[in-house]
Amino acid sequence: MLNSLNRIWTTVYINYKSLRFNLMNYLMLVVVFPLSYLVMNIIASNGKISIIQTVIGAYTSMIISLFFNLFAIQVSSANEIQILELYRTVKVKVLEIFCGNGLFYTLLSVFMFIVMVLITAFNSIEFNLFRLVLCQIICFSLLSTLGIVIGSLIRNPSMAGPIINLIYMICVIVTPIYLAPYRVDGILKHLYFINPLSHVVWINYWGYDQYNGIELIKSIAYMLLVVILGWIYIFKRWNNTYSKEKKNII
Q: What mean pLDDT do residues 179-207 have?
């Protein structure tokens, strides 16, 4: 147990040390792209997006990009033959590496969460900090799970970058990033409900007392279901499988 925790924290430290080498890539994918989409939405709505919608939308867009464009690509790189042989030689469990990477991106997301809270507090918007923290635990669990699943599904690491970037852009388009849950109804809400990323956006409104009751319970239950199903696949895909024949690499 202690050895596993040590390897996980070592992975977090390695990611931290490599951060300065990939800083421009992080800024482009996690800051520039999401903020560009924000500007497009502000222009399209003639500036009628509220501060809460703007802050929650920008924040969720950034953390989705963090777990998709960066974390999922890292996971996919584990499909390389050299990496598989390395894991097999040193007996490092792949899931420990994934947990370390996921924890690192979660810590980066916590920083973004703090910025979101400070912006809303600066604008004198009331919020429930306990609710917001609880929401982030659920959101980070879902996004890290989806990141591992997406990265695991792409067996060709050389194609992972373009494919995952495309997946991210499609997900942002079909997700109500800048739509509050009370502004969506009818068949459109049912269609959005299928998308787990919609709930990443919506449950954050609970912290601002704008998403309550049965709808909130449905969202949390659906997100937890996706997490459970995702980890069933992840364990089946990676747990104790070091042979590249088992992973269908060749």
A: 88
